[in-house]
């Protein structure tokens, strides 16, 4: 981390907001807004893996999609190498997307069933015009070997592959344009553990070999623990805690992070924690609670929590928390 | 006190017949379940764990599926020999099931209270009013606030965690002897999963039922099960108490599975993996079904199928390594290094 302080962040996200406006129920009724992502900021350094964790509906996937402008963000900045993706026109954005790619959860849904792997990879390379046509063949073979697939699979269709193999194809397609950063959106969540381990190893190896940076989005904390350098926890569209992984796992400060960690079922008895069972469900994002959005389920909530939104503040150089009482709760 | 087996499954075989051939989804599965006991069935996709559970209630889609062999003894009555009428009296009453996705198993246009009351009326012969009251009580029991109001709502008005609780309320409404829970928490977030597991465990204590918990999540079984059966390619490859299975896994597959989990409290540069993929159920190898992926496999493994050996009281493993014929290296040696 010492050298990293002198380099520029590869990706900077500043106050990103993604608000979805719902259809009005009545003509003159109130406009209902879902604040899926509500003022999220973070940096990612080159070669680093930052993970976003949180439960369904916390906005982690939407954050990933908004960065790529797969959903147009409502407000905020996304600086990739200092250039703001949010105010680029279509042509500039397409060029910029060469550097930033995404791998989805369900590779079957994100691969065109009517195209062979060869066609898919060729298309990706042609759009970005980074590989001259005469070198495409060699590049494809290289990609296949990078992700551990046999070269003859190039002629096959997605349905001929298993889940793990499809995820390898998804990775090959993302790598085809030589990206600097890859957003992995629940990329191993649908896989069996033995296959998941293969893909996680592959991602780590690719990161080493190709100097990749990852934004890893997942709900699985043990996977996140394994792959990340830093971890960001989201709740109802906001960042509640962000820290390097060791600090977060050994000393989580936010009550939500603590409850989340204590809920993970573990095999090893000696690491089993007193389980903090949270009351109730995630509040509706249509009507989020006032003040700290976690106060409805927080065992420590006070009147201050109901009234004031806690700011994300640094408690050590590498650890930030959005809780009024972070210091008292350790 | 002598503990009776509530459920006894012997040599269950469920095959699927399709144009591609015969898929041996469940191929000779046996296990027993005592009163108040929780059995976990774990394994990866396609190992036959869900088909085993569907077979127990005779819910296997037929055709193409067919239970071709075996006995399923619930309180010494063979479920496979019952008439449809008799079967209906048992399902939801003596043995009931909860599924992974409650939204697909709930009726979307009927209030949840009505859906619970229906099975109570059917099995216990209560009046409409009494059944409704019992349904509301059940909804309260699974920890849903304002049960009177919730009972009148339809499934779409409830959250995922609440829907799963409604499923549990429905499954337990007639206090069954056996509850089969097929991936009941897989679609839920961890904090909600913790709530649901807590509820299932509390209700088990109160109602004294036995549970079969089917999941791919080793962490979940480790926390709630008394004993575990690990399935691979349609067969049970290892069975033992939860403690023995995680502390001293005998089968190389069980060991591989546990090792490939990322550790929550340890840094690892690389995860250990299991090479290759599961063999196709249409075409299982003649020898051990895991041999192709097993680092210890010998010619014996590739040529002959191992039996499920009893290594000690309550501990079984389907692996040549624990037979007298074995001459290769053993897993235990590697584990002790």
From TrEMBL, chain A:
Q: Which Gene3D superfamilies match?
A: P-loop containing nucleotide triphosphate hydrolases
Residue ranges constituting the ABC transporter domain according to the UniProt record: 22-261
Lyase in keyword set: no
Which keywords appear in this protein's UniProt record, sorted alphabetically?
ATP-binding, Nucleotide-binding, Transport
Q: Name one GO molecular function term.
A: ATP binding
Instruction: Name the source's superkingdom.
Output: Bacteria
Transmembrane portions of the chain: none
Q: Which InterPro entries match?
A: AAA+_ATPase, ABC_transp_ATP-bind, ABC_transporter-like_ATP-bd, ABC_transporter-like_CS, Oligopep_ABC_C, P-loop_NTPase
Q: Give a yes or no for keyword Transcription regulation in this entry.
A: no
**Family classification:** Belongs to the ABC transporter superfamily.
Protein name stated in the entry: Peptide ABC transporter ATP-binding protein
Instruction: Name its species.
Output: Lysinibacillus boronitolerans JCM 21713 = 10a = NBRC 103108
The organism that produces this protein has a lineage beginning with: Bacteria, Bacillati, Bacillota, Bacilli, Bacillales
Automatic annotation (TrEMBL), chain B:
Q: Which PROSITE patterns match?
A: ABC_TRANSPORTER_1, ABC_TRANSPORTER_2
Q: How does it sit in the membrane?
A: Peripheral membrane protein
Q: Does the keyword ATP-binding apply?
A: yes
Q: Which domain of life is it from?
A: Bacteria
| One MF annotation (Gene Ontology) recorded for this entry | ATP binding
Name the record gives this protein: Peptide ABC transporter ATP-binding protein
Subcellular localization(s) per the UniProt record: Cell membrane
Native species = Lysinibacillus boronitolerans JCM 21713 = 10a = NBRC 103108
Keywords on record: ATP-binding, Cell inner membrane, Cell membrane, Membrane, Nucleotide-binding, Translocase, Transport
Keyword Membrane listed: yes
The entry sums up its family as follows: Belongs to the ABC transporter superfamily.
């Amino acid at each position: 981390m010492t050298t990293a302080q002198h380099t520029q962040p590869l990706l900077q996200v500043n106050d990103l907001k993604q608000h979805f406006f719902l259809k009005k129920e009545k003509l003159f009724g109130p406009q209902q807004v879902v604040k899926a992502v509500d003022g999220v900021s973070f940096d990612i350094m080159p070669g680093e893996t930052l993970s976003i964790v949180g439960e369904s509906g916390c906005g982690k996937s939407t954050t990933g999609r908004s960065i790529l402008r797969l959903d147009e963000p409502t407000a905020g900045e996304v600086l990739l190498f200092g250039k703001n993706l949010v105010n680029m026109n279509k042509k500039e954005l397409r060029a910029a997307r060469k550097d930033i790619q995404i791998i989805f959860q369900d590779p079957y849904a994100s691969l065109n069933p009517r195209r062979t792997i060869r066609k898919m990879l060729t298309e990706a390379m042609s759009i970005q015009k980074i590989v001259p046509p005469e070198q495409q063949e060699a590049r494809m073979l290289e990609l296949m070997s990078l992700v551990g697939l046999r070269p003859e699979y190039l002629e096959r269709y997605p349905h001929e592959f298993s889940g793990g193999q499809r995820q390898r194809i998804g990775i090959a397609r993302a790598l085809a344009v030589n990206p600097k950063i890859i957003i992995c959106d629940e990329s191993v969540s649908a896989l069996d553990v033995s296959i998941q381990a293969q893909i996680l190893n592959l991602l780590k190896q690719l990161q080493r070999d190709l100097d990749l940076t990852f934004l890893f989005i997942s709900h699985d904390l043990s996977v996140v623990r394994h792959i990340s350098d830093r971890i960001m926890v989201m709740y109802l569209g906001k960042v509640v805690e962000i820290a390097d992984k060791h600090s977060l796992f050994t000393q989580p400060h936010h009550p939500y992070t603590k409850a989340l960690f204590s809920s993970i079922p573990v095999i090893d008895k000696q690491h089993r924690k007193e389980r903090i069972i949270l009351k109730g469900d995630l509040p509706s994002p249509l009507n989020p609670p006032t003040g700290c959005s976690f106060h409805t389920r927080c065992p420590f909530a006070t009147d201050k929590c109901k009234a004031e939104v806690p700011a994300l503040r640094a408690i050590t150089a590498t650890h930030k928390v959005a809780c009024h009482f972070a210091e008292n709760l350790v | 006190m002598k503990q009776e087996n509530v459920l006894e499954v012997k040599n269950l075989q469920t095959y699927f017949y399709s144009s591609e051939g015969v898929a041996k989804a469940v191929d000779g599965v046996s296990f027993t379940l005592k009163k108040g006991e929780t059995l976990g069935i774990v394994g990866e996709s396609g190992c036959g764990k869900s088909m085993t559970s569907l077979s127990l209630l005779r819910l296997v889609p037929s055709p193409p599926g067919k239970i071709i062999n075996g006995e399923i003894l619930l309180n010494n009555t063979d479920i496979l020999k019952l008439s449809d009428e008799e079967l209906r009296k048992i399902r939801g009453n003596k043995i009931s099931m909860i599924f992974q996705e409650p939204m697909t198993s709930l009726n979307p246009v009927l209030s949840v209270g009505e859906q619970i009351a229906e099975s109570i009326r059917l099995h216990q012969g209560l009046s409409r009013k009494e059944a409704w009251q019992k349904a509301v009580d059940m909804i309260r029991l699974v920890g849903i606030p304002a049960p009177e109001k919730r009972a009148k709502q339809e499934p779409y008005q409830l959250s995922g965690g609440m829907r799963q609780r409604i499923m549990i309320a429905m499954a337990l409404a007639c206090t069954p002897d056996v509850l089969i829970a097929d991936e009941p928490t897989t679609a839920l977030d961890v904090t909600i999963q913790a709530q649901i597991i807590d509820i299932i465990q509390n209700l088990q204590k109160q109602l004294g039922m036995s549970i079969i918990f089917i999941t791919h999540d080793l962490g979940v079984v480790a926390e709630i099960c008394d004993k575990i059966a690990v399935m691979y390619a349609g067969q049970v490859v290892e069975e033992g108490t939860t403690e023995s299975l995680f502390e001293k896994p005998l089968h190389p597959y069980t060991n591989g599975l546990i090792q490939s989990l990322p550790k929550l409290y340890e840094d690892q540069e690389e995860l250990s993996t299991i090479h290759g993929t599961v063999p196709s159920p249409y075409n299982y190898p003649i020898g051990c079904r895991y041999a192709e992926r097993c680092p210890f496999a010998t010619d014996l493994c590739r040529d002959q199928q191992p039996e499920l050996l009893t290594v000690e009281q309550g501990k079984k493993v389907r692996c040549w390594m624990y037979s007298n014929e074995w001459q290769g290296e053993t897993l235990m040696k590697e584990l002790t290094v």
